[in-house]
């Protein structure tokens, strides 16, 4: 693609990532969540691949790095679930604490982000996993169609 | 039965999509079209689930800044979202397999690319 | 210890999942550490499964409510139906858990040396553990939608494992077929779940069974569920994909795929016995399962005769053996409403079928591992190119013979112990079924003798002169399965009392399954 497209895409990616993070963090009070936000960030990867070509992207967006981020996201999710095992697996132990500890009122409310206990953190874990996973999928398909394999 | 037809249109559409998806899966030979058939089948199930939870004049089931308390059913939406996520994973895997089959055999025709018989 | 057992059902799933995601992280640092981690984690899981199974079979059904204030709080205050995801482990689930734990541990140990030289091992073990976690989830869950999700986890990771060897065109084709079949089957299952949910607003199996009214829509949902699960387990009108996928997967994977099929069989039993249970028109449903089973036995064995590829031959034998289980269970289902017949032979038929499930996993798993060992050494699966392998691979040939005899139902191996139960009980239901079964067993023996004599005996070919026995971990994995075959064959009474009878009791006793969930309702 032309230099203009590449420059604009490089600037735009910042906003895409911020919007994706917003959707992830607000996931428990507004539409959205880990998968949706992660998919938005991964669409930023699509933008970069379209603008600069998969050859250039693969020099820094490596499969191994993505795999590490993906596994860490999944582990974060499972560890948060494990942390509740004092009562029951998946128990929401953060409710009432300083971190996301609020309890939203039943019925229409303004949507306080500092609620939900472990749910926003789990959204973050899912978001990391989906972001890395979908970016890896897109990159792999882009490289495949050019007749290449992923590096091991 | 006839008088309730307009309200049932989404169900009819879901069944039609189901039929189209199954038709493609059974009668089409192109591997990419088979992938599309599965995606259509998935969409028909999603439409069916969403329609199950729909209430006339219902709002999205989110309490933040909600105008009224008449809402559509959220459980089926959660099921649909899960199915969409699974659908993404399935499509990605199946497309990568199709690319590899194409690279090995040089064709997307399921009859010509077939290696195993009997 | 009691705390550990109370949480064990979720720990089994969660530890497997966590290990799956730890594998790539540890694998970057050190291969040896990764392999040790996987084996230790699976051994711990196997220990938990045994502890849980012992508790379930001695005491009561094990219920675990995720995220509630207490594990057994299925119905929180103010609600009248169960909320949250609920795991429910009864005798049958625990039985399946044992099968999965044994086979996945064996498959991992075998893969450690069989895949030593291949690339992408981190991904391989991640997928393998994901598949094990999916199967554990399928058999432990008490929630229909959760069952669907775990079924998808199992089938997606299974398809990726089948296509693991990307350099072969036919393994890509096998993976494609598996994922297409699985995707269609699981979408139809979701459709049926939607039909049930639209009427009862419930997803929990126990709660659904308690409120089931057996309307027209329920019947449609039952037909869809049954055909989808029969498709996933490879029953005969829908078996075409099975031989193409089992034969091209890396050696240890077919053993796991068999267990995945059996998890689908478990789901079929759960829906027909527990979900629909006494409200079902049993003799019709039972006869449908019997006919599917008979067709599977017959088509499986006749197709096996024709094969020249050793793994395809074993795959068709799998179709044939699952027919035996279906016949036994179908007879049990057909007489479920008739206590006299149930006592006389129904329970015995189901005992035989359930016993055959674990035996099937052991001997077919062993046969596939032996076929993988041959492929590992000589690089072909074509029977026409094998000759005289028994001269150099003595242990492997003995193990193959053991698996083959067990599969054909020859005493004193485990296949005989379960098949004799099926023969005796089914004879009282309908003698023709038993005759067909014995005929099929004889044909199975003929098929395997053909393979044995052409591949392992005869003159040793010059090009196979320096073929050696396979590495020790592979032999160890095969010997574990072989020891199981001999032990189960010599002491069938022990196994029947310990694990099979509780599983069958759980299958018949629909009320206990419902009460474990709905017990809190006044």
Task: Explain what you see.
The complex is a heterotrimer of chains A (152), B (118) and C (522). Chain A contains 5 helices and no strands. Chain B is 65% helix and 0% strand. Chain B has 3 helices and no strands. The radius of gyration of chain B is 19 Å and the shape is elongated. Chain B starts with a helix and ends in a 13-residue tail after the last helix. In chain C, strands 1-2 form a two-stranded antiparallel sheet. Chains in contact: A-B, A-C, B-C. Chains A and C meet through helix 4 of A and helix 1 of C.
Strand order of the largest sheet of chain C: 1-2
Morphology call of chain C = globular
Tell me the distance between the termini of chain A.
28 Å
Mean pLDDT of chain C: 90
Low-pLDDT ranges of chain A: none
**What's the number of helices of chain A?**
5
- Overall tally of domains of chain A: 1
Sheet having the most strands of chain C: 2 strands, antiparallel
Query: What's the rounded overall pLDDT mean of chain A?
Result: 87
Helix content of chain A: 55-70%
Secondary structure layout:
The complex is a heterotrimer of chains A (152), B (118) and C (522).
Chain A: H1 3-25, H2 34-52, H3 54-57, H4 63-83, H5 118-145
Chain B: H1 5-27, H2 31-52, H3 74-105
Helix pairs in contact in B: 1-2, 2-3
Chain C: H1 2-29, H2 31-58, E1 62-65, E2 86-89, H3 91-114, H4 121-140, H5 144-162, H6 169-200, H7 205-211, H8 216-233, H9 240-246, H10 253-276, H11 282-306, H12 310-334, H13 339-378, H14 394-408, H15 414-429, H16 431-455, H17 472-490, H18 492-508, H19 510-518
Antiparallel strand pairs in C: 1-2
Helix pairs in contact in C: 1-2, 1-4, 2-3, 3-4, 3-10, 3-13, 3-17, 3-18, 4-5, 4-10, 5-6, 5-10, 6-8, 6-9, 7-10, 7-19, 8-10, 9-12, 10-13, 11-12, 11-16, 12-13, 12-15, 12-16, 13-14, 13-15, 13-17, 13-18, 14-16, 14-17, 15-16, 15-17
